Structure formats: structure tokens, C-alpha cells
# Entry
Amino acid sequence: MIEIVLVSDNKFEVQTREDPEPVANQVRIRVKASGINFADIMARKGMYPDRPSTPCVVGYEVSGTIDKVGPDADSSLVGKDVVSLTKFKGYADTVITEQHHCVIKPKNLSFVDAASIPVVFLTAWMLIYVQGGLRQGQTILIQNAGGAVGLAAIDIAKHIGAISIGTASGRKHEFLKKRGLNYAIDYRTEDVSKRVMELTKNVGVDLIIDPVGDSWQQNYNLLRHGGRIGFFGASTLSDLGGSNIISKLFGLVKFFFSLPRWSPLALMDVNRGVFGLNLARMWNDDRLNAMLQTMVDGHKEGWVRPHVDKVFAFDQVMDAHMYIENRQNIGKVILVPTKNDIPH
Ligand SMILES: NC(=O)c1ccc[n+]([C@@H]2O[C@H](COP(=O)([O-])OP(=O)(O)OC[C@H]3O[C@@H](n4cnc5c(N)ncnc54)[C@H](OP(=O)(O)O)[C@@H]3O)[C@@H](O)[C@H]2O)c1
# Structure
């Protein structure tokens, strides 16, 4: 098998090794496409606490065909096309995963699109539907609406019948509106708080989902009574202070001192809710598989619309990471084993 090994911080190598064998309830997938997530970029830089120590293989999701199962797994799965969560090791042409993390891939869903669904749609579903309880007619503020989770959030908000406001770089606005975002704010040139209050006629929003981390307190102040805010990332940490170690440290200290502190008494007085999500920490939650099935069914129903921006081959993995880090992507970036596997 071939895998992309993170041999040390910031250094990938494509390596060959013997095929792994599935045991117990495991299945083996011959991978057609692997999803890249922002967590992989943090992992590459050594900034992701959940990452195993190097050398390791990162990657949280794949699509492909099951070619072998462990003795306790369902043998009828052999030959089936699936989409699956993988806790690390997804950047490979062969992966071992638990049977319960797989969902059968419908024929009309391509392998590349399938690999782009699990992490971002489950994240958005947890934040908006499960934890955020967004309802028809309510207003959601989606921070980083042009990211892959942001696009999934737009699909889910639209499906629910909510009004969506999203922040993103200006060049993404036209595309995001075509996808169904009701109002776009350019956080680089506009005052986000002021625009949100204008758009909501000074009422505020019902739900905010925020993976950026540079304005958590300001966003919290935009909630109306009964409003909730969900935190699920701190992208701002990825480029703190550039490459200079001193300014990086200074940036980190500044970040930690800027963290909001909420007391239960204060929350009561303002009728607000605060929650967080780390999907990787609920890997063995038995609801995950049912939720992934809901997302795949949502694709059949037409409201889950994976958007793959660009596909790279395994040996272009660093280019793929830089494409995301340089903020060029709108939506998902996918890896396939060889250049010949890149769809035209
Ligand atoms: N907690 C969880 O379970 C969970 C699960 C999935 C993702 N996440 C988090 O959600 C966030 C977004 O993930 P994603 O997959 O949607 O990411 P993505 O598609 O890679 O988003 C990239 C976009 O993020 C924006 N961005 C804002 N700050 C950035 C920065 N410092 N560096 C690079 N890009 C930045 C840029 O858009 P603009 O140019 O429009 O600003 C960029 O194009 C990440 O922080 C990720 O770790 C968390």
C-alpha cells in the first residue's frame, strides 16, 4: 500500500509498505479519495494536540471500496463502495476502519464528492441541528462561510429554512450567494458587528458558529435573547505571528488573554447559551454513523451538496495544504492516489 507519512513537522513523504489486515469488526478500504481538513494543516505544523507523534499518517475521511473484512464484520460488505470516517491514517490508498464508521456510497455520488462529506457535514450538522437547535425562520451567523464547513452550514441552514448571514473574503461572496447564503459580509473590509445588527434590525442572531477565534467576545454580543454560540476551531492560531518564534509566542499569549470568560450567572441574565464541538472527541459516539447516513441520504434528497474545489494527487500533498493555507479554496480539497485519478 501507499501512504503519505508525516515524517516530522512540516515534512510529508509518500511511502510504500505492506497492506494492513483487518481484525475483529474492522474493514479494509481500497481508497479512491481522501478528504483534507483544516485539522490536518494544524497537525502538519505540530499545532494539533490530538495528532499522534511523528512519523504518523493523518486524515479523517475516505471513500473507496471494501476489499476485506475482519472475522466479526459483515462479510457481505466486501466489494461495496463506501464512505467512511477514519481517525487518522486517511491519507493512504488502503485504510483499516471500523465497520460502524462506514456508510454505503450511492452510485450517483462520486468517490471524490463522497470523501468531502463526512467531517464537514457532520460538524455543521452537530453545530446547527443537534447542539444549536436552529429552526425555520431563525437567523444564523456563519463565520468562515467560504470554508468547507461553512458551505455545509449554508446547505443545512437552507434545508432548515433559516436566514443565513456569512463572513468570508469578498471574492467568495458571489459564489456563496449562489449557494444560498442570504447575506455575505467581508470581514476584511466591513465592521461585522455593525453589519449584523443592521441586517437583523438591532435584534441580533439566534445562532453563531465560529471556527476563527479572533472575535469570540464580539460575536457573543451579537446574540439575541435565547441565542446560542458554538465554538469549533481557532483558525487564527495557524498563522499567528508569521514564522518568527517571538511574535508567535507573543500572539499566543495575546490569544489566551483575549479568551472570554462567562459565568453561569451572567449567562442567565442575558438568556444566552455557549457550547463547543470537537468532532474527533466523539469518534465512538454511536450517533455518528446514523448522522453520516442522514448526510448521504441528504445528498440523495438534494440538500447536501458537496462542493469540491480542487483535487490533488498524493505526491502533491504539500501543494494541497498550501492551497488551503493561502486561502485559495472555496469548499473542499481532496487527495487521490495518483495524478491519473484526478477527475477532468
Ligand atoms: N471542532 C471540530 O470538530 C471541527 C471540525 C471541522 C473543522 N473545524 C475547524 O473549522 C475551521 C474551518 O474548517 P474548514 O474545513 O471549513 O476549513 P477550510 O475549508 O480549509 O477553510 C479555509 C478558509 O478559512 C478562512 N480562514 C480564516 N482564518 C484563516 C487562517 N488563519 N488561515 C487560513 N484560512 C483561514 C479562509 O477563508 P476567507 O478567505 O474567506 O477568510 C480560508 O479560505 C478550522 O478552524 C477547523 O479546524 C473544526
